[in-house]
Fold this protein.
Amino acid sequence: MAVAATGRDLAASLQTGSGETVIEVQELTKIYQVGDLTVPALSGVTLTIHGGEFVAVMGPSGSGKSTFMNILGCLDQLTSGRYLLDGLDVGRFSKDELAEIRNRKMGFVFQGFNLLPRASAQENVELPLLYSGVPAGERRRRAREALIRLGLEGREHHLPSQLSGGQQQRVAIARALVNAAPLLFADEPTGNLDTKTSLEIMELLTHLNREGGITLILVTHEPDIAAFSRRVIRFVDGRVVSDRRQEGA
Amino acid sequence: MTGLLATVRIALRALWVNKMRSALTMLGIIIGVGAVIAMLAVGQGASRKISEQVASMGSNLLIVMPGSLTSGGLRMGSGAQMTLTLDDAYAIERECPAVAAVAPMVTGVAQIVHGNQNWSTAIQGTTPGIIPARDIALVSGRPFTEQDVRAAGKVVMLGQTVVENLFGARDPVGQIVRIQKAPFTVIGVMEKKGQSLMGHDQDDLAYVPVTTAQKRLFGAHFAGSVRFILVKAGLAADMEQAERQVTELLKQRHRISPKGELDFTIRNLTQMLQAAEQSTRVMSLLLGAIASVSLLVGGIGIMNIMLVSVTERTREIGIRMAVGAKVWAIRMQFLVEALTLSLSGGLIGIILGVVSSEILSRLAGWTTIVSPLSVVLAFGFSGLVGVFFGFYPAYKASLLNPIEALRYD
């Protein structure tokens, strides 16, 4: 299958990583249709993100920052414009090809954690491996390793409801990392956490970016959280109003 | 295909993880299927029982009864006059082509004595025609013959109830019993027929030759006349023709003018039995209706549980898609889940239905018949409801973008 092959090529190219252009969007537009109303969420966004970057996407609520991240993460579809992921036009991919890209190249961390409520921490982390056809034994081993790496040893068989917010978010991060995805998207990852836990999670993410070489795209409205990043893109009314590089904390 | 196997495993794990919902869904299917099978089994059993009773009375039967008597302007009731004779019966047998068998009846009640046992029973004097007319089968011995009738022989055929009371478990054939002090030889024992539609014990009787009954037992009451005549038509379709032929013949023999009042009446036994069958059919239908209601309620139960979980499951679908589940993997998972629930629930329901039918027939003594159609019907309906409401919402969710599914509420 030709397109599956492009997916695999994409994987290989993404691994080469640092410094190369990974994400390129041109005149990206997203319009929501609500009844008779058309609500523009993004109006002509053009920018480039390189491998190994740590980008904070900021802006007031309704500014389009989450929509932007969802489109980059192939969770949502753009209305017009172009999105090139390592030079390949994402708009040409089918739903299943997008699923494969998400599975192998991307990890997601959400504000609400989005764990399966009735599955254990271990089972939640195994989920991406399940869909990439990893055999059961290896699945268990890798999920366990990821959990241990995030300091969750001994919690493998807890349900999300039996874990604290910080622990649940660590499980979500473990799930994002378990398939060794080079791209990590985080949508308000500390939004439901207290200050101390937020700092721990941010240090963890920063560490993954600096030491693990993971490209990190983080959506937040808190300046304290954005301060961890090395590049801040600000959105207002669906447009980029500023794009500044800064020294990380 | 390892992908399929993995999906089946995901589905089974999801079922296990959502134990409560799985159990409730299955309960709906189990109750629906079980109730339908049990109810239809009771209905079918009842109509089978009625059919057997109908068959036990003999089929295609007409009863010719003596008519009313008008005496000096005073009209007596039906059967007041003994207008039918043995010769009438023989004439019917001879001259009516639509008639297959005739049995004239002379009846009375008498004490039968054997050794130190005695039993009061219905003594029916008749001819060998009773065997085909009533569809009688013998368990031992022989029926009586024309020779016995001509000779007014002292021979008797006994019903099971009489045998049990006089002989217990012994075979009475060849033994001597006394009826009104006269010795009779037992020549045959009739097969058990059970209760009639009216709850009458059809095995509490004894048949003797009609001539013997007239001359030796009930002679004082019936001089040459018979109480009634059983007439069996050859085919169900011949009933009307037989009735017409018998009527014509008897009018001629009794010298009744074309417009004169008949001194006999003919009753069609089959019509009566058909009415009884009709009423059981209505009962079966009623049970079926109740069963369909429980099936429907079970279906609504399944539907409710499935629909209530749609929100939660749509988010689950969003999560699975976000981490890389392909559309077919999502659909397969939910299809396998729905099939597993429906099939296992259906199977348990079938077992429950069959077992409760069995318990009903053991405890309440009802005849129950589990029909394959009811099994297929109940299983099919519950299965379809389960699969539809388990799979369809998931199918719709799989069409969404992952982010839409994640935000669904």
